[in-house]
Amino acid sequence: MIPGLPSALAQLLMPGSAGEPFYMKELASTAFGASLRSNPETMREFTHALYPGDPLGYFYQLCAAMSWTSVSWLWSLRQPTLILAGDDDPAVPLINARILQYLIPRAKLYVYKGAHLGLVANAQELAGVIEQFLANDA
Fold first, then answer.
1. Nearest C-alpha neighbor of 31 from the set 85, 88, 69, 83
2. What is the dihedral of CA 7, 9, 14, 19, to 10 degrees?
3. Is the pTM of this model over 0.90?
4. Cα distance between residue 127 and residue 74, in whole Å
5. Domain harbouring 57, CATH code
6. 86 forms bridges with which residues in the sheet?
């Protein structure tokens, strides 16, 4: 993976990220991008709904994300694959989705206006994209 902005990644590693509402609001607006900053209602829903659970489990999840790659076998995927990526994601830059699209033979990339949590902030738009993908490629 091409790493995101150091400031965004650093916030994801902070111990306060394990569900404290104030910290989650800061995390959402900095690490997850402008679409949450510009939409107070979505930000409120996100910060109340998200709880990463056990801090040790969250730490293991972050370690796995930073140390594992699927690049060497993506070429072997044969099923149609939909990749959703935001154009303003400080945590996971768009280039990563483009790499996936290039390496997965039957991949389709959909870039939405927004950030890391598109399924939260752009739920209606992306539900339609997913529905159309499944109807056409199933």
1. 88
2. 110
3. no
4. 25
5. 3.40.50.1820
6. 112
